[in-house]
Design a protein that fits this description.
Structural class: alpha/beta
Helix content: 10-25%
Largest sheet: 9 strands, mixed
Number of helices: 8
Strand content: 25-35%
CATH superfamily of the largest domain: Spore Coat Polysaccharide Biosynthesis Protein SpsA, Chain A
Number of domains: 2
């Protein structure tokens, strides 16, 4: 069995972060989301993985390399434009070479991995196994309708009036029959080859499509709130504190906290679960639960919790607490001393800034 990870797309829901970075490389608990997908495939015994890349392909290649860091072999499959999930499958046909495969959307997270789903697929041998989860907003997903026997009857992509609350989770298992489907369907009104249309084609043509209802934690990390929840869940998996950095003066560490090598904390309070990356410099700072601070971040005279701070950023002399926030790379947040007092901002497109 092979793997296919989708790491193209424009990540519009996470702008402005994704104006300059691939959404699949935004870190959760200081690890890029894409890495969780690679690890899930490796742990399921998959050793050959194709990664669909688009405009951010060079960045993805630089971060992932040839896959040897995970003990897998990576092949990059460029997609000319984000023309739909079924189009991504279509261009992977030569790479798959007739083998069954797992398709994993690179901005999704499934706690516990995919090994059990791969085992189920290999044991039951359907033409496709689709993962479904109950969601409160099914109109934002592909939606499946099951009959009384639990068989998949219909699939529809982002319907205005959903017929069920069962959304397609971003992991699919296929045999080579899916290539008949993706080559038979036509683009949807939004100009994309929809994976829901391809799977519906399999059903209509009499191929066996099995559903699996996911009852554990799964998240599509397309929005800020989803990123923060994913960060919270992954930080909760920290088992024990690991303090490799330097603590100076009156520091207080509470709960499960990871402080990486080269980090230096002076007169700080850190309440876990939290993680502080390499070479960070924190002074007179409070770090609250569910906070992930990436490498080379400087924070002084500030408070922060339930947030994600990317590498190279600085937060200095802030009155009040920063919370529920995502700061990109090399962001500067400071309190100015210029008179008259005023808010002076430089924000990119689609930024969000709250004043209390």
């Amino acid at each position: 069995m092979k793997g296919l990870i989708l790491s193209g797309g424009k990540g519009t829901r996470l702008r402005p972060i994704t104006h300059t970075a691939a959404k699949q490389l935004v870190p959760v608990a200081n690890k890029p989301i894409l890495f969780y997908a690679i690890e899930a495939m490796r742990d399921a015994g998959i050793r050959e993985i194709g990664i669909i890349i688009g405009d951010t392909g060079p960045e993805v290649r630089a971060a992932v390399g040839d896959g040897s860091a995970w003990g897998v072999a990576i092949t990059y499959l460029p997609q000319e434009a984000p023309l739909g999930l079924a189009h991504a499958v279509k261009i992977s046909e030569e790479f798959m070479a007739g083998e069954p495969f797992v398709m994993y959307l690179g901005d999704n997270l499934i706690r516990g991995g995919i090994t059990s789903f791969v085992d189920e697929f290999e044991a039951s041998k359907p033409d496709s196994l689709i993962l479904l989860a109950k969601v409160p907003n099914p109109n934002q997903f592909g939606v499946a309708v099951l009959n009384a026997e639990g068989r998949v009857v219909t699939l529809e992509e982002k319907p205005k009036e959903p017929k069920s609350d069962l959304a397609l989770v971003g992991v699919y298992l296929f045999t080579e029959t899916i290539f008949k489907a993706v080559n038979a369907i036509k683009p949807s009104p939004r100009g994309e080859l929809e994976i829901t249309d391809a799977i519906q084609w399999l059903i209509t043509e009499g191929y066996r499509v099995n559903p699996h209802l996911v009852t554990g934690w799964w998240k599509d990390t397309g929005k800020l709130s989803d990123m923060l929840e994913a960060n919270r869940i992954m930080l909760d998996d920290i088992k024990d504190s690991v303090i490799e950095g330097e603590l100076i003066g009156d520091c207080e560490i509470q709960g499960r906290v990871v402080i990486a090598k080269g980090a230096r904390l002076s007169n700080c309070i850190v309440r876990g679960p939290a993680i502080i990356g390499e070479n960070c410099k924190l002074t007179n700072t409070y770090v609250g639960p569910y906070t992930a601070i990436n490498r080379d971040v400087t924070i002084a005279n500030a408070e922060i919790e339930h947030s994600i701070i990317l590498e190279g950023s600085s937060i200095l002399n802030i009155n009040g607490r920063i919370t529920d926030s995502l700061l990109g790379k090399n962001v500067e947040v400071t309190r100015g001393e210029i008179k008259p007092k005023a808010y002076r901002l430089m924000l990119g497109d689609n930024s969000q800034f709250s004043i209390v």
